[in-house]
Specification:
mainly alpha, 0% strand, elongated, single chain, 8 helices
């Protein structure tokens, strides 16, 4: 049976989110990594860790954590969008487009459809 992070340690999870909101990213990251040790298969924790690394400009780590989140929750639009954007920002545009196409093959996303249209317009005018 899969354990849910929020049920495992709600106080630590809430503390991590509060620290993140206050901009105390290192402290939030430490709390989330502690939770990740308790519940390593939680895509929410992995996604939030990815987001913090992205906020810090650490794209390599952000890619790793968003990749883990999408592996754990392949139908998560937020995880997929996070992975797409950090890949794009890391100049891994081919991988970003592949992630977008992977997600669109199994789910719907207004944001990804908008990105697809914008990419088509740019390539048509290039």
């Amino acid at each position: 049976m899969k354990r849910n992070t929020i049920k495992v340690d709600r106080k630590l999870f809430d503390k991590a989110l509060e620290l993140k909101q206050r901009g105390q990213l290192e402290e939030a990251l430490a709390a989330l990594q502690e939770l990740h040790l308790i519940v390593p298969d939680d895509p929410i924790i992995c996604g939030i860790i990815g987001e913090i690394h992205w906020d810090q400009g650490n794209l390599i780590h952000a890619i790793r954590w968003f990749s883990t989140a999408t592996r754990l929750a392949p139908k998560s639009e937020l995880a997929s969008l996070g992975l797409f954007h950090v890949l794009w920002e890391a100049n891994k545009k081919g991988l970003a487009v592949a992630e977008m196409n992977r997600y669109l093959a199994i789910g719907k996303s207004r944001e990804f459809r908008t990105i697809q249209r914008e990419l088509r317009i740019k390539s048509a005018s290039a």
